[in-house]
Write a structure and sequence with these properties.
Layout lengths: L4 E3 L2 E6 L6 E3 L2 H43 L1
Antiparallel strand pairs: 1-2, 2-3
Length: 70
């Protein structure tokens, strides 16, 4: 791997000389971004589970109504 080139005026960023990509080299920024991504995934999982639970409750209520009316 080639040595990264620091970007003047941006201490947490560097350029990869091979690809030209700008990369974040600030460990605390990277850790915070990973934490936010993890928290968002957890929130999405909770929301999906809630949707499934509501759907299941709705289905059970429909069955109860059918049995009561049928």
């Amino acid at each position: 791997m080639a040595k990264l080139i620091n970007i003047e005026g941006h201490p947490g960023l560097a350029r990869d000389p091979v690809s030209g990509a700008i990369v974040n080299i600030n460990k605390s920024d990277i850790d915070r971004a990973r934490s936010r991504k993890h928290a968002l995934k957890e929130k999405e999982k909770r929301f999906d589970q809630l949707e499934n639970d509501v759907s299941e409750i709705k289905s059970l209520l429909m069955k109860l109504l059918e049995e009561k009316n049928g």
